[in-house]
Amino acid sequence: MSDEHRTVPSWEARQHFAKVVRRVVEREEAVYVADDEYSEPYVAIVPVALVRHYESLLDQMEEQLLEERLVRLETGRSETLSADEAKQELGLV
Question: What residues form DSSP beta bridges with 6?
Fold first, then answer.
């Protein structure tokens, strides 16, 4: 996948949605959507393979964290974490 990306205004993405999606699929690159040509993008249309890869990485991180926590529990070096602390440790906040 390319590091290059294209930003389109929301009106263009809406008006030419099928064309934008086809570009994403054919070029395997994200298309960013912003209010206009000068605004920061607020959403991206990305290939599903990229989303699946991201989800896989999150699953691996979560599995690694759970394995580490299990080792701590088994060795008596466990500490209690709040849900917020666990999310932070997982990089979800």
Answer: 31
